[in-house]
Amino acid sequence: MAKAKKAEAKEWMYEIIRSPHITEKATLGSQNSQVTFKVPADATKPRIKEAVEVLFGVKVKGVNTLVQTGKTKRFRQIEGKRASFKKAIVTLEDGQTIDTGTGV
User: Fold this and answer.
1) Alpha carbon of 7 to those of 10, 21, 55, 61, 66: distances in Å?
2) How far is CA 35 from CA 38, 61, 71, 86, 92, in A?
3) What pLDDT sits at residue 9?
4) Is the backbone of residue 29 left (phi > 0), alpha (psi -120 to 50) or beta?
């Protein structure tokens, strides 16, 4: 019965951590033991922390979140808008690392 609960818990954790957000700025954060992930708009800091700790087996020091609003872009006469998304910057304890190149 306990294994079934753990399996259910892992399913929502995979929904919380959607993908790593790889940018130049996020890569610079890796020098300070920080990893950036795209998360759902309704994700909370405690749930993000729990999901990262269980999925990757690391200790999390802190979680900062922000909503990246979509930019308005033009292509000839057509105006469009990029989608907004929420990202979480996860700071790990000293000595902890996550290899984002391998995937979740």
Assistant:
1) 5, 26, 12, 25, 29
2) 10, 12, 24, 14, 8
3) 65
4) alpha
Span 2-92: which CATH code?
3.30.70.330
Mean pLDDT of the chain: 88
**Which amino acid, 56?**
F
Residue 2 has pLDDT above 80, yes or no: no
Q: Residue 20 corresponds to which amino acid?
A: P
For the chain, the structural domain boundaries read: 2-92
Give the tens place of pLDDT for each residue, 34-68.
Answer: 999 999 999 999 999 999 999 999 999 999 999 99
* Residue matched to tokens 């609960």: 5
How far is 40 from 92, CA to CA, in rounded Å? 21
